[in-house]
Design brief:
The chain is mostly helical. Helix content is about 85%, strand content about 0%.
């Protein structure tokens, strides 16, 4: 149990650093936009990220439910 918690914490910390940088092209583009266009860009990013996050969450939930019965 302790080993799996440490492994999960390590994975979260590892991905947080790499995903926090952002794309320099998107940053430069967003700086030149007005408020309405910037909100549209942010909405598009969230729209594109929604499906993969839902799929990963579903797979994780199914995996957790199946492994929960073995404990």
């Amino acid at each position: 149990m302790k080993r799996s918690v440490l492994l999960a914490l390590f994975c979260v910390l590892l991905t947080a650093h790499s995903s926090g940088q952002g794309c320099s092209v998107c940053t430069k583009t967003a700086q030149g936009l007005d408020d309405k266009s910037a909100k549209g860009l942010n909405g598009g990013i969230i729209y594109l990220a929604f499906l993969p996050l839902v799929l990963m969450g579903t797979v994780g939930l199914i995996w957790w439910k199946n492994n929960k019965s073995g404990v």
